[in-house]
Amino acid sequence: MQSTTVVRLGIVLHAFFAAATLAWSLWGAYTFWQNYFGSPLASVGAVLVIEFIALAGFLCRVFRIPSLLQHFRHVLPFISVGFVIHSIHDMIALRQSASEWLSWTVTILFAILLTIFSFATWISLERLLTRAEQIVKNRNYDHALRFIEDAQTNLAFLADISRIVSTLPPPTSDSPSDSGHRYTCPSCHAPLTQQQYAAALRHGRCRNCRPLSNYRRNGVNVSGHESLAIVADRESE
Length: 237
Description:
- It is a single chain.
- By secondary structure, this protein is mainly alpha-helical.
- The chain has eight helices and two strands, in the order αααααββααα.
- 75% of the residues lie in helices and 2% in strands.
- Helix 1 runs antiparallel to helix 4.
- Mean pLDDT is 76; it is low at 173-180 and 214-228.
């Protein structure tokens, strides 16, 4: 996180210095071509052809655009300084006390320093932008690796669950789910619904058991299957 912040701060600072030298260069180029052509339209056209081609080469290099314009990015610092020399010399020459020798000496010294500064600014800006792109790629790569590791962990967990489930015994046939009836009479074990089962718990027997109460009172023991047969016979009569 700290490296990303440092790179962003460096990009902002170098972009500010590069924009400052570029703006001064554009103004110097415009005034130079204005004095040479005497036409604002021709001056703007010359600036667009020379300055912006070099700037387009720099952008093509940064954004990895395959173009021959990338080679023109190397002349961007020198173009910036070349037109600044014209404006600096004009400003110094406006002073009547400054001689021609002094004005050109100061202009050349200033141009050398500005060339070194501009060259270092544009080169550093290009490297910082490339570094920022590499940081983003590394971060995405780390996220992809973490996602793959999590997916492998989840797959291993599912494999363990599947192995455990495969070792469990199959369900027995006498389970309530297999028989299809969850409730039976506590007396005759006849299949009942939930409401019938609740009533059978209250009375101790279900409705099918009630007609057999006389048999039990007389001392005759009747099983659950026999009680169902007796009830069926009575209903048929």
